[in-house]
Design brief:
The structure is a single chain. By secondary structure, this protein is mainly α. It has two domains: about 80 residues, no CATH class; about 210 residues, Orthogonal Bundle (MetI-like fold). It has 14 helices and no strands. The two termini are about 20 Å apart. This is Nickel ABC transporter permease subunit NikB.
Amino acid sequence: MSGFILRRVLSLAPLLLIVSLALFLMLHLGRGDPAMDYLRLSQIPPTDAAVAQARTELGLDRPLAVQYLSWLAGVVRLDFGVSWVTRHPVLEDIATFLPATLQLAAAALALTIVLGVPLGVVAALARNRWPDHLTRVVAFLGVSVPNFWLGYLLILLFAVTLGWLPAMGRGGPEHLILPAIATAAMSASIMLRLVRSSVLGQLGNRHLVFARARGLSERTVIGRHVLLNAMIPPLTAIGLHIGELLGGAMVVEVVFGWPGVGRYALQAISNRDFPALQGFVVVMTMIYVICNLVIDIAYAWIDPRIRLGRTLT
């Protein structure tokens, strides 16, 4: 198991390097001059002398490769520079806003699992009956409705019309309910359909006939021989859902006025705050990669064939 973990950790280094290079090139080879953006955000008149001084201070007068290596060296030390808007270290800003986003994404992930897995199992066991049809309709609606529009609908119904829940801000648990539902709706629907398909695939296996022939109860057959094996694909999909939930949370944060890192990133995009934007992308990529690493380890622990390098047959 330790060898598998080491191989997975080593394989992440090239991925992070490629992401950092792509991010750096996209920002620095795009339209506009970062020096002009810096002066605009600093409220300094963009004279020729000021532009030249800004380019020297920011290191923009150096070759692009030198700029990248210098920035990468800072990233390794977790030094993403200073935000041109807040004038605070980028890592300090992200550390301030990130807990709110992680709280929202964690609540949405919990809803995805708590709703998607049981409903998917129910739909599979009641195939072509009314519970199956009802859950499939719910899953279709969940996938079809954009999370920001669902957020507005939830605010209109539960905050404006009924007055049951707050519409904006971050506070007690009641403030988390609507944003978490809006964030988790699509992921829970996808999880439901995946679990249903996986359970149906296991129900068709021939070894279940022999399990029942040995006198095992139906609960044991379903729990030990169906559900345990059927949970491997959904477990793998959780890693993909983490990235989806983080992205969805950033959009929902704007709708519900949630003070997370998504609003910080949107501010960085609108202001062309390069250090903040670079730091945000790198940190979110690292979180996504680490979460997927944990999922891969759990996957290998459940199915020894994965860590032994064998394919599923």
